Amino acid sequence: MTYSRIAGTGSYLPEKVVTNSDLEKVMDTSDEWIQERTGIKRRHIAADDQATSDLALAAANEALDMAGLAAEDIDLIIIATTTPDKVFPGTACIVQRRLGIRGCGAFDIQAACSGFVYGLDLADRHIRTGGGKNVLVIGAETLSRLTNWEDRTTAVLFGDGAGAVVLQETDEPGIISTHIHADGQYEDLLQVPQGVSQGYDITRAGEAFIQMNGNAVFRRAVATLDSIARETLDKNNIDKHDLDWFVPHQANMRIITAAAKKLDMPMERVIVTVDEHANTSAASIPLAFDVAVRDGRIKRGELLLFEAFGAGFTWGSTLLRF
Ligand code: ACO
Known about the structure:
Blueprint: E1 3-12, E2 16-19, H1 20-26, H2 31-38, E3 42-45, H3 52-67, E4 76-80, H4 91-98, E5 105-109, H5 115-128, E6 134-142, H6 152-155, E7 160-170, E8 175-182, E9 190-191, E10 211-212, H7 214-235, E11 245-248, H8 253-262, H9 274-277, H10 284-294, E12 303-310, E13 314-321
Parallel strand pairs: 4-5, 4-6, 11-12
Antiparallel strand pairs: 1-7, 2-3, 6-7, 8-13, 9-10, 12-13
Helix pairs in contact: 3-4, 7-8
Acetyl coenzyme *A (ACO) is lined by residues 29, 33-34, 37-38, 112-113, 152-153, 156, 190, 212, 214-215, 217-218, 221, 251-252, 255, 279, 281, 309-311.
């Protein structure tokens, strides 16, 4: 049987750090409020001349290094992003060019904060059906470009960054199962209302910002993460206590704690980076994962659960042995 496994991980965070105290100076908020309601202490913000592809490329190079591969070994590049460099070409094509390779498939997917687990789902199926041996899956975002710095209810929540993995063909799993879902009826609760084919006005492009009903998103996120965890464990006849690590989407510490509690997972076994990175949407899981691999917490052979929830709503999970 053909399976896929994660052969390498990488990540990149822009140099500029904006703390809660920095935000206190430009909006009516406080470090205390932000930490208490979200767990966030700081976030990284891309420089004016940094695009999503710059962040993605740096993360991809690290993942290739860890996998011991050259860019030429890559058969497919998938980038999950809600903040592509351009409407087209896809950011994945830009990254492919900058990796100095040609010919392999390269495309972007847009599933908001769940984009990375959607990408893993596609990449795993691609490898298992003989489509290629090595797939780069990247989550990369410059959410600061969609942030309304005059709206304190959203501005404090988001950050920029990128995470990447190389998924590689293998003869034992690796990826055990992937699960993706969406329910489009919640469009209005979390959105950037301007797009290309609807409501697009080039003179108002600078007003295309994130809008969110925080309370409603919070409630749905907690309920949905519980159901996707049960679906994933039931499908594989795995007891929640067998999990070594829980790597959730990093949106809000209270959502993470609630999801961990339902899994009966002690917080020492939950990877948390929301305090340092804030919510980096599609980048948040691969970023958190890479941090914990590189600091030695997550080790080869351990059983991991990734879980994501985002605009759409979209949600999904990955159960894997690292
Ligand atoms: N600083 C200070 N006060 C604030 C701020 C702020 N940054 N933002 C809101 N407030 C005020 C509100 O105006 C309100 O004041 P009022 O009572 O006088 O009206 C008060 O704080 C409470 O506001 P709530 O919205 O009820 O606060 P809540 O406890 O729900 O926290 C939050 C808000 C953090 C946004 C929370 O709802 C949340 O985390 N929701 C989920 C959001 C999320 O995770 N989104 C992303 C998931 S999907 C994805 O990743 C794209």
